[in-house]
Write a structure and sequence with these properties.
5 helices; DNA-binding; mainly alpha; 70% helix; 93 residues; DUF2063; Putative DNA-binding domain-containing protein; DUF2063_N_sf
Length: 93
């Protein structure tokens, strides 16, 4: 799979890669977002509750888009999320 595919699925780009359908790519993007949301929430249920739905969705979208998560194992997502939060919290505003 191409970098364009991964960039679209993670929300880095909104340009559907050549050879893929718009509907199919939107489904992939949704499934990645949903999977990340569910797995992060399983480790940090109180965070979603405290943030509220809109802020939670923004946080997960930013995590999927900007994190350095590259493992094929969803079990590694908790550590990647913690690294993302730490990196983002120290970033200059």
């Amino acid at each position: 799979m191409s970098t364009d595919f991964y960039n679209y699925v993670r929300g880095v780009s909104d340009e559907v890669p050549l050879g893929y359908s718009d509907n199919g790519m939107r489904a992939y993007r949704h499934l990645v977002f949903l999977g990340a949301s569910q797995l992060v929430e399983a480790s940090f249920p109180e965070l979603r509750e405290r943030l509220g739905e809109a802020s939670w969705r923004e946080l997960i979208a930013a995590f999927v888009r900007d994190s350095r998560w590259s493992s094929a194992y969803y079990g590694d997502m908790k550590d990647a999320f913690l690294e993302f939060i730490e990196r983002e919290s120290t970033r200059e505003v």
